[in-house]
Design brief:
heterotrimer, A alpha/beta (637), B alpha+beta (261), C mainly alpha (223), A: 637 residues, alpha/beta, Methane Monooxygenase Hydroxylase, Chain G, domain 1, 17 helices, globular, B: 261 residues, alpha+beta, Fumarate Reductase Iron-sulfur Protein, Chain B, domain 2, 2 domains, five-stranded mixed β-sheet
Chain lengths: 637, 261, 223
C-alpha cells in the first residue's frame, strides 16, 4: 500500500500557511463539546494539552509518573534549536530545514521538516513568555551556542538543563488549565489499550498504578505523546519507565509503525560498569569539543592510561577524519568506538570503553578554564564512577539515546487510525534516519504548541461522531482483554523475572540491531527474540495480585511489548538493504567504511502494519520526494 | 567489575526497609541482607538486586519511586539512615553510590514522612500536594501564540541566572522530608522567586504568592521556622534566599493587593 | 477585615508576628540590660533604685509595659500555635533521623529554649516585679524602694544563680537563631547585609546574655 501523507500543495515555504487557512475550524462554542485524550505529559503532551485546553476543548492527560513534570523530556541537557538568526550568522528557516533533512540522511519528509523549522521561532517566544530562564548575554538578550557540529549558533539553552526548563514551562501552562478545570490530570495511570469504535480512535483503557483499577476513558480524539522506545535495549539513556506500550498497543489496533529500526546511539555516555547496571548516563556532546578520543594501539593493553606513552596511543577519530576529528557526527563517532572495542582495544575492566582525554585541553587552557566549561559534567562523572576526570581520562562508550522511528503520521500528525494522533518522539518524526542535536525538544514543542492544535481541530470539525459512554461494548471488551492479559501474566508464575527477560532482549538488540547490523545477525536475532518471547509467556515470574501497587505488573506489560517491538525493529533493519544515518548495515558501506545509502530503492518511509499475533508485519511505503534538497553522500574526511 | 578501580571489593549489607502494604495499613521496618554489592552500584541498583532476590524467593519486591536515574526527574525519594536522599550532599538517591557505604553497614530506609505525603506502598509516597501548589499559581498566564518576540524582553543576566537557580527545583520533596516541621516552603519559594524575578512573572506576582501559600497551608504542610535543613538536604541546592524572597513577596502582596477576601 | 486575620493566620503571617515581636523583645533586652548595669555601680544600689523608681513611675514607660506584655503574649502565643501545627504536620516520625547533619540544634529547639526562658521569666517576675509592686520592700537612703537588696539577697543562693545562668544560656541560643531568623522572615536577606546581620546577631546574643548572667555571678562571687 502506498501511504498518502496529505502534504499540501504549493511551494514548500507556503505549505503550512496555506494548510492553516484550509483546515476546518471548530466554532468556539462547540469546542467545549469535544473531549481529547492525551497520553504522556512530556514536551509534546503537556504543550498540546495546555494549548488545546486554552482553545476550549476538554482535555484529559495521562502519565505513568507521579507528576506530569517527571516525563523524560526533563532529562534533555543540551538545548533547543530555532531559526531565529539572533546571532546574525546566516541562519534561516531554510538552513535549519536543510540541515535537518541532510542530518537525517535524507529519510525525512521535507514538508514536515520545513514546518518544524518555521515554527521553531515561535517556540522560543512562547517559552520566554512563560518564564523559561534561558541563558542570556550580559546585555540581557538571549544567548545561543552552536551544537552538534552545526555551522551556525542557533541553539538556545538553559545551562545543561534545557529539557527541564522547557518541560517546566509546558507543565506550568498545563497546571494553569488544570486549575481552570479544562484539563483533568491522571498521574500514575498507564494506558494499556486503545479503544476504537466505527474505525475511529474513541478512547483508551488504563490501569491505575497505585490501586490496580482498570478504567475506560472516552473521547473524540486521542493523542499519543509517550516518547521513544529506546528501552527495548534495556540499557539506554532513557528513564526506567520509558516504554513503548501506548504506541505498540495502538499499532496492534491498526496504526502503522514507521521506520522502527532507526535508533540513535549517542557516543559519549558513561560505560557499563557491571551486570547490575540499570541505565546509562549521557555526558553532553560538548565534551568532544575539547576532549580527545583514544585507545591503546596494542590489543589488551591493561596499563593505566597515564602509563601509556603518546606513541602507543591511537587517536582514531583524528586519524581517520582529519577534517572533523573528534567532532564527527554522533553515528560516526559511535561506530568507530565500537570498532576499536571489537578489535580488542577497548579500555576499562569490561573492555567496552574508549578514553576521552582532557589532558591536552588542561595543558593548553588551564584547569580553571576547563572546569568552567565542563565542571558540572566532570562532577557528575566523578559521582557515578568514583574517578576524577581531571586526573585520568574519562571512559566513555556509546549508548542508545533516541528513537527516530515511531508511529507513522501524516502531515497532520494523524496516524493511520482516524482520530489517533502521535506527537514528539512517539511519532516516526521529522528526523529521518538520524536526529541532530537539540532538535528533539524543538520537535516535541512544535508538535504540541503549534501543529496539533490546528490539525486536531480540522478533524473534529468534520464530525468525529457523538460522545460515547464508556459502557459501550468496545470499552467493555477492551477492559476484559486488558484484565485477562494481566491475569495471564500473574498466573504464569515461572522462574525468570521480567528484568532477566528484558536484559536478554536488550543484549540481543544491542549486539545485532545496534550500532552495526548485518543480515545474518539480524536473522539470528529475529529467531532468538521469537524464542525469548515464547519463553516469556511460559516462564515469567511476577508477584502477587492486581491490587495496590504492583511494579512487577507494570514492568511485565512493558517488556511483553518490547519483546514484540524488538522483532519488528529487526524485521525493518533486515529489509532496509542500505545504510543511512543511525541504521548501519555492514554489507552497505563505502570503501572508507561510511554509510552507503541506496536512494533508488530505499528513499521511502517503511510503515509496518500489524497483521496478527503470529504473522509477519506487512510493509507499506511512503515514498519520499526531495524537491528542495539535493541528495548527497555525507563525508567528514 | 568497576572500570579502572581495582579497590572495588563487594560489600555485604544489612537493610532495614519500611514495608507497608498500602495507605490504609500499618507498616514496619523489615530486615534484609544483601550480598556482593559492588561499590559502583547506585543505591537504587542495590534495591534492584534486593528486589530480584526477593522475587526469586517468592517474596514481594519493595515498591519505590524512581524514573530517570540521573538526578533530574525528581521521582526518587527514600530517607536513608536519617537523611533525605542519604548521606551525600547535593545528590538524589538515584545518584548516591554504594561506595559511600562500608562493608557490614546497616542502612535504614524509610519513605518521606509528612502528613501531606501519604504512603502509597513501602517507600512510595503521594506527593501530589506539591502539584496542587503549582496549580494554584505557579505559572505565567499566557496562552499559546500571540506572545512578543523573545528578545523584546531583555532580562539582565544576573537576574536570569538567579531565576534559573530557583527554577532548577526538581520537586522531589526532600525539603519537606528533611524539615522538622514538614514544611514545603523551600519548594514553594523556588517557584515564587523564579517568577517574581522575571518581568514575565511580575504581572501576577501578588495573586500568585497569595494563592500558592494558601494552597500550601491547606495541604497541611508545616510552617517554616528557618531551620535550614531543607536547603542543606536539597539535591539541587535551592537556596534559603528564596524563602526570604517568598516572605517579602507575601508581605508586599498582602499589604498592597486588591484582594480583601 | 477578613484579609487581615487571614494574613496573620497563614503560616507566613504567624511567623511574621513571631519575628516582629521577637525583634521588639530584643530591643527590650537592650534597655533592660543597660538599666540593670546600674547594679554594678558601687553606691550600694542608690543609682539602681533611682532607676527602678523612674521605670515604675514614668507614664511612657508604664504604657510601654503594656506593649511589652502584648509583645511577650503574641510572641509566645503565635510560637505555640506554629509549633503545634508543625508537630501535627508529621504524625508518623522517622525511625532513624539525623537532623544534626543538616541543621543547628538551637534552630530545631526554639520551643524548648523558649519554654526554659518562659519559666525563668515567671520566677524572675515573681521575685522582682511582684515583690516590688505588691510586696513589702524597704527604702534606701534616697527614699526609693530598695530593689537592690532583693537582688543581692536573691543572688546569694547558688541555685538561684544557676537558674539565671542556665536561662541566659538558653536565651543566648534562642537569640542566636532567632535574631537572624527574624530578618529572614521579614524578607530582609541580601548577600551584602545578611552576613553582617548574622554576625551581629551572634555578637548581640552573647553580649546581652553574658551581661545579664554577669549580674548574679557578680553578686554571688564578688559581692
Amino acid at each position: 500500500m502506498i501511504l498518502d501523507a496529505k502534504i499540501p500543495d504549493g511551494p514548500i515555504a507556503e505549505k503550512w500557511e496555506k494548510h492553516k487557512f484550509n483546515v476546518k475550524l471548530v466554532n468556539p462554542a462547540n469546542k467545549r463539546k469535544y473531549d481529547i485524550i492525551i497520553v504522556g505529559s512530556g514536551l509534546a503532551g503537556a504543550s498540546a494539552a495546555a494549548t488545546l485546553a486554552e482553545l476550549g476543548y476538554n482535555v484529559k492527560v495521562f502519565c505513568f509518573q507521579d507528576s506530569a513534570r517527571r516525563a523524560h523530556s526533563i532529562a534533555a541537557q543540551g538545548g533547543i534549536n530555532a531559526a531565529k538568526n539572533y546571532q546574525n550568522d546566516g541562519d534561516s528557516v531554510y538552513r535549519l530545514f536543510y540541515d535537518t533533512v541532510k542530518g537525517g540522511d535524507y529519510r525525512a519528509r521535507e514538508a514536515n521538516v520545513y514546518r518544524l523549522a518555521q515554527v521553531s521561532v515561535n517556540i522560543i517566544d512562547q517559552c520566554v513568555a512563560q518564564g523559561v530562564p534561558f541563558a542570556r548575554e550580559y546585555g540581557g538578550l538571549l544567548a545561543n551556542r552552536s551544537f552538534g557540529g552545526a555551522q551556525v549558533s542557533r541553539t538556545f539553552y538553559a545551562r545543561g538543563q534545557t529539557g527541564q526548563q522547557l518541560l517546566l514551562g509546558a507543565y506550568s501552562a498545563l497546571n494553569r488549565q488544570i486549575a481552570y478545570g479544562k484539563v483533568q490530570m491522571f498521574p500514575r495511570t498507564e494506558m494499556l489499550d486503545l479503544v476504537m469504535v466505527d474505525g475511529k480512535a474513541r478512547g483508551i483503557v488504563t490501569r491505575h498504578l497505585v490501586t490496580g483499577h482498570i478504567e475506560s476513558h472516552s473521547a473524540h480524539a486521542v493523542v499519543l505523546a509517550t516518547g521513544g522506545y529506546g528501552n527495548v535495549f534495556y540499557l539506554s539513556t532513557n528513564a526506567m519507565g520509558s516504554n513503548t506500550t501506548a504506541i505498540w498497543r495502538a499499532y496492534k489496533k491498526g496504526a502503522f509503525f514507521g521506520n522502527p529500526c532507526f535508533t540513535q546511539i549517542h557516543p559519549t555516555c558513561i560505560p557499563v560498569s557491571g551486570e547490575y547496571q540499570s541505565k546509562l548516563t549521557l555526558m553532553s556532546e560538548s565534551l568532544r569539543n575539547d576532549g580527545r578520543v583514544w585507545v591503546p594501539k596494542a590489543k589488551g593493553d591493561k596499563r593505566v592510561p597515564r602509563d601509556i606513552p603518546e606513541a602507543e596511543r591511537d587517536y582514531f577519530l583524528e586519524r581517520k577524519y582529519p577534517a572533523f576529528g573528534n567532532l564527527v557526527p554522533r553515528d560516526v563517532a559511535s561506530r568507530n568506538a565500537k570498532l576499536a572495542c571489537d578489535e580488542g582495544r577497548g579500555v576499562g575492566s569490561t573492555g567496552l570503553a574508549v578514553y576521552l582525554d582532557f589532558a591536552d585541553a588542561i595543558k593548553r587552557d588551564g584547569l580553571d578554564k576547563v572546569s568552567q566549561k565542563y565542571g558540572n559534567l566532570f562532577e557528575m562523572y566523578a559521582k557515578i564512577t568514583g574517578e576524577d576526570p581531571y586526573q585520568s581520562p574519562m571512559r566513555i562508550y556509546p549508548a542508545v539515546h533516541y528513537t527516530m522511528g515511531g508511529l507513522w503520521v501524516d502531515y497532520n500528525l494523524m496516524t493511520t487510525i482516524p482520530g489517533l494522533y502521535a506527537a514528539g518522539e512517539a511519532n516516526f518524526s521529522d528526523h529521518g534516519a538520524n536526529r541532530l542535536g537539540a532538535s528533539a525538544l524543538m520537535q516535541g514543542l512544535a508538535d504540541g504548541y503549534f501543529v496539533l492544535p490546528y490539525t486536531i481541530g480540522d478533524y473534529l470539525a468534520q464530525n468525529p461522531g457523538p460522545k460515547i459512554s464508556t459502557d459501550h461494548p468496545a470499552f467493555k471488551e477492551s477492559e476484559t482483554n486488558v484484565r485477562a492479559t494481566i491475569q495471564k501474566l500473574l498466573s504464569i508464575n515461572g522462574t525468570k523475572t521480567v528484568d532477566e527477560f528484558h536484559k536478554e532482549l536488550g543484549l540481543l538488540m544491542w549486539d545485532y540491531c545496534g550500532m552495526a547490523r548485518n543480515a545474518e545477525g539480524l536473522q539470528f536475532a529475529k529467531d532468538k527474540i521469537k524464542a525469548l518471547r515464547e519463553e516469556f509467556w511460559r516462564n515469567v515470574k511476577l508477584y502477587g495480585e492486581n491490587e495496590d501497587m504492583n511494579q512487577t505488573i507494570e514492568k511485565a506489560g512493558r517488556v511483553a511489548d518490547f519483546l514484540e517491538l524488538g522483532e519488528l525493529m529487526v524485521t525493518d533493519a533486515l529489509h532496509r538493504n542500505e545504510s543511512c544515518g543511525g541504521h548501519f548495515r555492514e554489507e552497505y558501506q563505502t570503501p572508507e567504511n561510511e554509510a552507503l545509502r541506496d536512494d533508488t530503492n530505499f528513499a521511502y518511509v517503511a510503515a509496518w502494519e500489524y497483521t496478527g499475533p503470529n504473522s509477519e508485519a506487512r510493509l507499506n511505503k511512503e515514498p519520499l520526494e526531495f524537491e528542495n534538497v539535493k541528495l548527497t553522500q555525507r563525508s567528514y574526511k | 567489575m568497576a572500570g579502572n578501580n581495582p579497590n572495588s571489593t563487594p560489600m555485604n549489607l544489612t537493610l532495614k526497609v519500611w514495608r507497608q502494604k498500602n495507605a490504609k495499613t500499618q507498616g514496619q521496618l523489615v530486615t534484609y541482607n544483601v550480598k556482593e554489592i559492588s561499590p559502583d552500584m547506585s543505591f537504587l541498583e542495590m534495591f534492584d538486586v534486593l528486589n530480584e532476590d526477593l522475587l526469586r524467593q517468592g517474596q514481594e519486591p519493595v515498591a519505590f519511586d524512581h524514573d530517570c536515574r540521573e538526578g533530574i526527574c525528581g521521582m526518587c525519594s527514600m530517607y536513608i539512615n536519617g537523611r533525605a536522599h542519604g548521606p551525600e550532599k547535593g545528590t538524589t538517591t538515584c545518584q548516591l553510590h554504594m561506595r559511600k557505604f562500608k562493608d557490614g553497614d546497616t542502612i535504614v530506609v524509610e519513605p518521606w514522612r509528612a502528613n501531606a505525603f501519604t504512603v502509597h506502598k513501602d517507600l512510595s509516597t503521594d506527593r501530589s500536594a506539591l502539584d496542587r501548589i503549582q496549580q494554584a499559581g505557579g505559572y505565567v498566564s499566557v496562552n499559546t501564540g500571540g506572545v512578543p518576540d523573545a528578545n523584546e524582553i531583555p532580562i539582565p543576566k544576573p537576574i536570569a541566572d538567579k531565576a534559573f537557580d530557583a527554577a532548577t527545583c526538581i520537586q522531589c520533596g526532600a525539603c519537606v522530608a528533611a524539615c522538622k516541621n514538614a514544611s514545603a516552603m523551600l519548594f514553594l519559594s523556588a517557584k515564587v522567586s523564579q517568577l517574581a524575578l522575571l518581568p514575565q512573572g511580575k504581572v501576577e506576582r501578588k495573586t500568585r504568592v497569595e494563592n500558592m501559600l494558601a494552597q500550601h497551608d491547606a495541604e497541611g504542610f508545616g510552617s517554616c521556622t528557618n531551620i535550614g535543613a531543607c536547603a542543606a538536604e536539597c539535591p539541587v541546592g535551592i537556596s534559603l534566599d528564596n524563602i526570604a524572597m517568598l516572605n517579602r513577596e507575601y508581605i508586599s502582596a498582602k499589604a498592597t493587593s486588591d484582594n480583601i477576601g | 477585615m477578613s484579609w487581615f486575620t487571614k494574613t496573620f493566620s497563614s503560616t507566613i503571617g504567624r511567623k511574621l508576628l513571631v519575628a516582629i515581636t521577637g525583634l521588639f523583645l530584643c530591643s527590650f533586652l537592650v534597655v533592660h540590660l543597660i538599666g540593670n548595669l546600674q547594679l554594678f555601680s558601687a553606691d550600694e544600689g542608690v543609682a539602681f533604685n533611682a532607676y527602678t523608681y523612674f521605670m515604675t513611675h514614668n507614664p511612657v514607660i508604664r504604657a510601654m509595659e503594656i506593649v511589652l506584655l502584648l509583645g511577650f503574649a503574641f510572641h509566645i502565643y503565635e510560637a505555640v500555635v506554629i509549633t503545634r501545627r508543625n508537630q501535627s504536620a508529621r504524625s508518623v516520625k522517622y525511625a532513624v533521623n539525623r537532623p544534626e547533619q543538616n541543621s543547628n540544634w538551637s534552630s530545631r529547639n526554639m520551643g524548648l529554649l523558649g519554654t526554659v526562658i518562659f519559666v525563668f521569666l515567671l520566677v524572675h517576675l515573681y521575685n522582682f516585679y511582684f515583690k516590688l509592686k505588691f510586696g513589702e520592700v524597704s527604702l534606701d537612703a534616697a527614699g526609693n524602694k530598695n530593689l537592690y537588696v532583693i537582688a543581692v539577697e536573691s543572688f546569694s543562693h547558688w541555685w538561684y544563680v544557676a537558674l539565671y545562668v542556665i536561662s541566659m544560656i538558653a536565651l543566648a541560643f534562642h537569640l542566636i537563631h532567632g535574631f537572624q531568623s527574624a530578618f529572614q522572615t521579614l524578607g530582609l536577606s541580601h548577600k551584602k547585609y545578611t552576613p553582617a546581620i548574622k554576625a551581629f546577631g551572634y555578637f548581640f546574643s552573647i553580649v546581652v546574655c553574658a551581661g545579664f548572667a554577669a549580674m548574679p555571678l557578680y553578686f554571688f562571687f564578688l559581692y
